[in-house]
Amino acid sequence: MTTPFGGSGRPAPGLPNLPTPPTGWPVGSYATYEEAQRAVDHLADSDFPVRDVTIVGVDLMLVERIVGRLTWGRVLASGAASGAWFGLFVGLLLSLFSTAGDSLVRILVALAGGVVFGLAFAAAQYWGTRGRRDFTSASQMVAGRYDVLCQPRNAEKARELLAKLAMGTTAGF
Question: Which residues form the General stress protein 17M-like domain (predicted)?
Fold first, then answer.
């Protein structure tokens, strides 16, 4: 079983089943996730018990980046394209499980039907907004900073290793 976010659906051994706040002492704070990930990777490369480490995004915000302007042409082209893919899929399924007749005709009819329905649904959806959202965008959740926490039993060792990383005195960095 998998989850929509790529996990196995089962928590790792030792992790709680329900969402809980993270625990541990702060051992580092970073402006970007990449920097926090690099810090934890450094700990792992130093044979540190990384099961005691957690990266926590603090000051979460939803960032919506505008990709482009939405026009009738783009809406209809996008609707036709997505309808065509769905129609092609349906046509291939019909031809795969059908015993009689020309498979190419089934595929082409389903493809054309998909294009028509894709156009219709996209047009109806765009018309329904009445110009209130004439742009396309991509959203992502980001944090203002990323804190690395460590369980108290190993926090001092983690701070020492991360201080060496920050000073650039470690091999390979």
Answer: 27-111
